[in-house]
Specification:
By secondary structure, this protein is α/β, with parallel strands linked by helices. About 55% of the residues lie in helices and about 15% in strands. The chain contains nine helices and five strands, in the order βαβαβααββααααα. The protein starts with a strand and ends with a helix.
């Protein structure tokens, strides 16, 4: 049996809205039965649909990321959110492979032509962002090699499947920095070899190294 999550929302905390929450839950449980869904969680919230910062939304996204469910059941798409918040959530749900079912559609959510067009545009923009990110990494690696950096000598294997290393190689940060790379290109180069490091982290680790070296020199001068 397929697993699903029920999400119900009202916009205010008035007592009159309590009946709306209960009605939504009843109708959604009937929808789940008709579509052979086993409901693993029922999430209810009292919050504005324009607000993206909702605990219930984060909870359901976590459940979907953990593959605990494959579908989301809502009264209609406005229960997910309004305006940009709704589109952002629909895009994220699509990326997670989640199918949205609604009482309004009596099955899978049927998007309007406008909503479909917006989601297509967002997907295209995101794809180009990924391409730009990969190009930045490639540029950083090329710049490092041109400056004499030889990764095959300096870095060991990153492991099967390109898994990211937890440890940040301070010796490689210093080596690349001394070769004239910016922290941006330096971080991009190391990410290309499997190290999970940002420009800010590379800068901080380098400054910590310089500070430690300075302190060591000062201690030697005292003796």
């Amino acid at each position: 049996m397929k697993k699903g999550i029920i999400y119900v929302r009202v916009s205010t905390k008035k007592e009159s809205q309590e009946s709306s929450l209960e009605r939504q839950k009843r109708e959604l449980h009937r929808l789940a039965e008709r579509n052979d869904f086993s409901i693993i969680r029922t999430i209810e919230e009292q919050a504005s649909g324009f607000d993206i910062d909702r605990p219930g939304i984060f909870e359901l996204l976590d459940l979907l990321k953990d593959k605990q469910a494959e579908a989301l059941l809502v009264q209609d798409d406005t229960r997910l959110g309004r305006g940009n918040a709704k589109m952002a959530l629909l895009h994220q749900l699509h990326k997670l492979g989640c199918t949205v079912y609604t009482v309004e559609d009596q099955g899978a959510l049927k998007l309007s032509e406008t909503d479909t067009m917006v989601l297509d545009i967002v997907s295209i923009v995101e794809e180009y962002q990924r391409k730009l990110h990969n190009l930045k990494i490639k540029r950083g690696m090329k710049s490092a090699v041109e400056k004499g950096y030889r990764p095959q000598r300096n870095l060991g294997s990153t492991g099967a499947g390109g898994r990211k290393r937890k440890d940040v190689p301070i010796d490689e940060i210093v080596r690349l920095r001394n070769s004239g790379l910016t922290f941006h290109d330096l971080a991009a180069t190391l990410r290309g070899f499997g190290y999970d490091i940002s420009k800010a982290t590379a800068n901080r680790r380098y400054q910590e190294f310089i500070k430690k070296q300075t302190e060591n020199v000062s201690e030697k001068d005292k003796t």
